[in-house]
Amino acid sequence: MRHFLNLIDLTADEVRHLLAEAARLKEARRRGIPTNALAGKVVALIFEKPSLRTRVSFEAGVAQLGGTSLFLPGNEIGLGWRETLADFSRTMSRFVDAMVFRVFKHSTLDGIAAHATVPIINGLSDWSHPCQALADVLTIQEHLGTVAAKTVAFIGDGNNVARSLAVAVGRLGGRTVLACPKGYAFDEPFKKDFAARVSPDALTEVHDPLAAVANADVIYTDVWTSMGQEAEREERLRRFEGFQVNGKLLAAAPKHCKVLHCLPAHRGEEITDEVVDGPQSVVFDEAENRLHAQKALLEWLLK
Ligand code: CP
Ligand code: NVA
Q1: Residue-wise pLDDT tens digits, 140-171
Q2: In angstroms, how far apart are the furthest CA atoms of the chain?
């Protein structure tokens, strides 16, 4: 039995397998070929924070695979305060076949996974967003043919999405350049772990967005203020000034460069309308790929 808490725990072959399976499931859906790998299975979705893409793509994906999903808001079931995480996890493991969590603190996931006897999937924590990263590399592969030897410029905060993306890209032989204001780079423990377990030279940090995009194949951005950081919003708006992905930045990148964003976007802050809605944007292909990537993940974890 495996959990899916951080992408760094998967080998390159495992990531490639998931991407191949996601592509197969995407094509099967396009051709109307039914799949029932999750027949009789129940997947619980337990969310402490808002979600559109993660919730709906998991619910739709489970249904398309012939299974059933239960959506449980964290506060209604008392996650973390009505009983211990261990008791919660052991009880839930008796009822369902897998659990997807969206949590404030990554340690909540670790606490649950330690006692679960069914697979636990990270549907976003403050540390990582591995489901998003799977969809991201699937999208890059579709549009650029491969991730290997490609350069992804992440413009913005060294956050959960950026960490998982850098790991996924690095696993597949690409490199990431993070362009961020001082104080918003990746933390040292992450960089050490990345160097040891992914690659010693597939991650660099700069503070100049124009320099970051000069050789980029992909420009990626995410919100400057993540869920749970709302109190820092004003300060972050000031600090991230100059890190917007706009027409001027895109003009400094190679012509073939694609633009990704995990969404939801704060249009007019980290990215402009002209870029999100422009010809180089693949953000809705990326959103769709959440569905296919997670179906592959569920099949893999529940096989
Ligand atoms: N990208 C993403 O995880 O979207 P949601 O927050 O809407 O799930
Ligand atoms: N970094 C964002 C991603 C949302 C999908 C957040 O954690 O709120």
Answers
A1: 999 999 999 999 999 999 999 999 999 999 99
A2: 55
